[in-house]
Design a protein that fits this description.
The complex is a heterodimer of chains A (436) and B (297). Chain A is an alpha+beta fold and 436 residues long. Chain A is built from three helices and 17 strands. Chain B is an alpha/beta fold. In chain B, the strands form two sheets. Chain B has a four-stranded parallel beta sheet with strand order 2-1-3-4, sandwiched between helices. The chains are: A alpha+beta (436), B alpha/beta (297).
């Protein structure tokens, strides 16, 4: 009985023991497995880390190599050959015209330059190539070539070629070369920057479209809150209205002043006064072989006012400008003593009424008081002034393109002509300057 | 008569000889100079928050101001390409020409983003050096402030201790403010927005905003009806949180799109003076974050 009991107890005990052993084995197995998997994962992480480290090292070496190579490339002659190229920009223009009564002279005026509304049909205009750059710490250089088609022949004209000082003290600067004179407001602008497809009549009559001087210009800006600018130009060239005279002294002298400022944030204005005095030697009338010699004195008063809401022209803006020209000439024309006054003015407004779109109106007039002596010559006094009224509307997707429609009621000749112009003006290359 | 009197008064009033004359192209740089130079600087700012810095003209008052400047500070990266070169030339001021100590371009001191891969005008009025609207990342302001303080010292040695202590003070306050802004704006991360122009790319990069589209089809090309219609179609299935624009952008396109998508339309201050509450660089970011959280989030 006892034996049985003890045997039973011993069986139970050994059963207990083997269960425990089994339990322990199982635990040991689990621990082992756990360790093994942990070691395996650690090993895996280690390999990955090693791989990453070597990858990073390779990346770093590569990056260093690239940086090194880039700096070598950038400092090598090959990459730098062209970096001193000047800023190059070109303006491409063309137009379609519908003109019945074209003119190349304005009654009472000796013509100069290329004036008049031109002919009918499609024509490409003057293509400008402009190059600008600093020359060195003291000088800035500018070159503009105008290429045009003249009767089937391609002509290249040196429109502007000048240098300007950049390091003179006290607000002084000097310009030398061939430059657009500061006389008048729009004279200094290229024609493709105009708001209408042609220059106002006083510019055509008195400047042949644009007065270009060959000589020097000096200007000074006062150290004031307003722009107060004074300047003078000496011109030895023959750009109309001046004539080349082959003398030591200049053939024409201009003095000018510009004053301008802001009114609040929304308005800015500029007022200009200029005086051009020229010694005329054989100004050819381009017609009968007659010519004028004598003194020419021209005064120009110009005013421009610009408005935009808060000074922000993104959507709406207004620009109003007016110029008044008065000239006295005293000398001899076709053997007859001449002493007469001519005058002209224009007033124009351009209204940007929505984004991309602008509309404008211009009235321009010129008038010569030559008296009865010159009947039959180019200076014949027809007793009426020449005038025009023009309406334009233009569209610009960006500041680099412009499409324009212009209607002109032309009364330059004693007949009235309704003219229509369609025009495109596109600029490529260097960004143009936003001149006021 | 009044104008003539005014002209004579300006001519006769001696311009303060001791002050450092500073010409700032944009209000943010005027504000930064004020932080670093305080009363030493007499600052003229060329643009307001309501004027597009791309589109300015070299108007007479600016020529006069550049003429008098000892330091010119602008954004650079061709933001002012249309008018700054002309101002430099017309002003006849030998102290602020390209490369002079008085010529400081903020863009020279920070990394630009959105550098175009294709530099061609068919891509709009692009800037080859990258996006120039870089002041809306306060980390850039930090870097530019240090560079500017150095430059101020170079121009005006007598003020060096003032510039140094003001810089340290500014950087302390700026770092603290940045921490605060980053905390406040944490909830804005991933916010999807449409922007009129790429004016807020740096802000987006800093706050991790997602600018999903611009109203302009190409930079500088005004939004067209066709482009807006396309955007509407594209964005309708998953509308963004709002449309943002600067005070100088045309408000019509963003109003049109936000109304049709039924989402918020928000004019952010963009720079100093953009809203009445934005009087310096600190309030610029305070207000920008507040407005974004209030109206869009």
């Amino acid at each position: 009985m006892l034996l049985i009991l003890s045997a039973q107890a011993s069986t139970a005990f050994s059963q207990d023991l083997s269960a425990e052993v089994q339990e322990l084995r199982k635990l040991l197995g689990e621990v082992q497995q756990d360790y093994q998997s942990r070691i395996a994962s650690l090993e895996e992480r280690l390999t990955r880390a090693e791989r990453l480290a070597s990858g990073a090292k390779r990346d770093a070496e590569e990056a260093y190599e690239i940086a090194e190579q880039t700096s070598i490339d950038q400092s090598s002659g090959l990459a730098l050959q062209n970096v001193f190229n000047p800023a190059i920009g070109s303006v491409i223009v063309a137009r379609y015209g519908n003109v019945d009564q074209s003119w190349e002279t304005i009654p009472g005026f000796i013509p100069g330059g290329e004036i008049g509304p031109g002919g009918s049909g499609f024509s490409i205009g003057e293509t400008d190539f402009n190059f600008t750059s600093n020359v060195d710490p003291n000088f800035f250089g500018n070159l503009t070539l105008a290429i045009e088609n003249d009767g089937g022949e391609t002509k290249i004209a040196l429109e502007e070629v000048w240098i300007q000082t950049t390091s003179l003290p006290s607000g002084f600067s000097l310009i030398g070369g061939r430059f657009f004179s500061e006389a008048g407001y729009i004279n200094k602008f290229h024609r493709h920057a105009d708001d209408f497809s042609d220059r106002p009549l006083p510019y055509q009559a008195f400047f042949g479209g644009q007065y270009i001087a060959d000589g020097i210009q000096a200007r000074w800006i006062a150290p004031a809150a307003l722009l107060i600018e004074l300047g003078a130009e000496l011109n030895w060239g023959g750009g109309f209205p001046a004539t080349a005279n082959n003398k030591t002294g200049p053939g024409a002298v201009t003095v000018f002043t510009n004053i301008g400022g802001d009114v609040g944030n929304s308005n800015s204005w500029q007022l200009g006064l200029s005086w051009l005095s020229a010694d005329i030697v054989n100004r050819d009338d381009g017609n009968n072989g007659d010519s004028f010699s004598g003194d020419s004195d021209l005064g120009v008063f110009d005013f421009v006012w610009k408005w935009a809401p808060d000074g922000n022209p993104t959507v709406r803006s207004i620009k109003v400008q007016a110029e008044y020209f008065r000239r006295h000439e005293d000398g001899v024309f076709a053997g007859i003593p001449y002493d007469g006054d001519q005058s002209g003015w224009y007033l124009q407004g351009v209204w940007q009424f929505m984004q991309r779109w602008r509309a404008g109106y211009r009235h321009d007039v010129v008038d010569a008081d030559n008296g009865p002596l010159f009947a039959g010559t180019i200076l014949e006094d027809l007793g009426s002034s020449s005038k025009r009224d023009s309406l334009m509307i233009d569209w610009s997707l960006s500041e680099f393109s412009r499409l324009r429609l212009q209607l002109t009621n032309d009364r330059v000749l004693p007949v009235t002509d309704q003219q229509l112009f369609l025009q495109y003006i596109m600029s490529i290359g260097a960004h143009g300057a936003h001149q006021f | 008569m009044k104008t003539i009197t005014a002209i004579f008064m300006t001519l006769l009033t001696p311009l303060s000889a001791n002050a450092l004359n500073v010409f700032a192209c944009e209000p943010e740089w005027g504000a930064l100079v004020k932080e670093l130079a305080g009363d030493i600087a007499e600052i003229t700012v060329a643009t307001t928050a309501f004027q597009d810095p791309h589109k300015l003209q070299a108007r007479p008052s600016l020529i006069a101001a550049v003429r008098r400047a000892d330091l010119l500070i602008c954004t650079g990266a061709q933001l002012e390409i249309g008018w700054l070169p002309l101002l430099l030339r017309r002003s006849a001021n030998p102290h602020i020409q390209v490369g002079d100590p008085g010529y400081f371009l903020a863009a020279d001191f920070v990394r630009k983003i959105e550098i175009p891969k294709l530099v061609d005008r068919s891509q709009g009025d692009i800037h080859p050096q990258g996006n120039p609207h870089l002041h809306l990342d306060p980390r850039n302001i930090q870097r530019i402030a240090s560079a500017l303080a150095k430059r101020l010292t170079e121009i005006d040695r007598s003020g060096s201790s003032v510039f140094e202590s003001r810089l340290n003070d500014f950087q302390d306050r700026w770092s603290a403010a940045m921490l605060r802004w980053e905390e406040e704006s944490a909830s804005l991360a991933g916010l999807r927005l449409v922007s009129h122009h790429r004016s807020f790319s740096y802000l987006a990069a800093w706050l991790d905003l997602d600018i999903v589209a611009t109203l302009e089809p190409k930079p500088g090309i005004p939004p067209s009806g066709a482009h807006l219609a396309r955007l509407l179609e594209q964005l309708t299935p998953n509308p963004p949180a709002g449309v943002i624009r600067t005070p100088y952008s045309n408000e019509k396109p963003s109003a049109w799109l936000s109304e049709r998508l039924g989402i918020a339309e928000l004019q952010l201050p963009y720079t100093i003076g953009g809203t009445d509450d934005v009087v310096d660089l600190f309030t610029l970011f305070d207000e920008t974050i507040r407005l974004l959280k209030e109206h869009v989030n």
